[in-house]
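I am writing to request your help with a piece of structural work I have in hand. Thank you for your consideration; the sequence and its tokens are set out here:
=====
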Amino acid sequence: MKLKLAFAAATLALAAAHAHADNPKLRVAGSLVSGGMIQQHKEQPFFENFAKNTGLPLDAEYKPVDVLGVKDADGLRIIKSGLFDIVALRLAQVSRDEPFFLGPDLVGLSTDYDTARKVVDAYSEAFDKRLQERHGAKLLGTYPFGPQVLFCKGAVTGLADLKGKKVRVSDLSLAKFIEKLGGIPVTLAFGETQQALERGVADCAITGPSSANSAGWPEVTTHVMPIGFQIHLVAYAMNLKKWQALPADQQAKLAAAFKRYEADTWAYSRELWNDASRCNVGQQPCNGKRYALKEVPATAADRKVVRDALTSVSLPLWAEICDKSFDKCSATWKQALGPVIGLK
């Protein structure tokens, strides 16, 4: 019922905007405002100057999903419904409806930008096929928030120190990994995490350096461990009927525009990650807000624990869940990504 009410409210808002439109407009539900700089400095300008950026006789009616009052976890339902023409899908969140889409971001897999780029490229064909067949949408592109790292309130020297600590996580595979370390996973929305850290509901939390910097996590934590667990991906999907209604030349222009946008956002994400990593520990140059967290270097042993988590925790767990909803899930994953990561 809440989802239907949100759809209705968003429909009225967009209908009002269309009444004053000069050109046909695509209805776009973008990333969360709370997601930070990529939404503000890349996504919003791209869609607000859509005709110019794509060379198409189309504009975009763009709103971040949280401004629309729609939950990001409902992204696949929104795009399939036809209410929106393009939707930014946070893969960790929409994987509750489609586990296959978490495949390129399992714990221990895409732990750095270079690996993540190879993984996404190798997985995109299977991702797009599943998106079209099951959810009536076309994959346009992706971007990463960047390697997700550990922030703690109180001293830690390594992953072993998470034993007994309450750690904010964002998906099931990360929760199981924290459990294996002896920690207590706490599932919290990103916007609730700073207050949870401040009040002791969570002792530690995992996110990207830039997101943490924008949300003020370093104000309520003391230590950061720059070891990547996942990279957190966003994918842009277009309603398949809307895509198929475009002439072939317009499809080509739109695909080319998103390819440029994708390359731009991946590069910008890496710049933000590096800058925020410096800012959070008080180093220069820093274009964000400077803090004074204590950096805890990741040891080779801790990095191995994360790498091994792919085959010992996250892949078996995910495969079991995903194969129940899609019988070719894990086999497709291994065919696409096995050669990339050296897994038979």
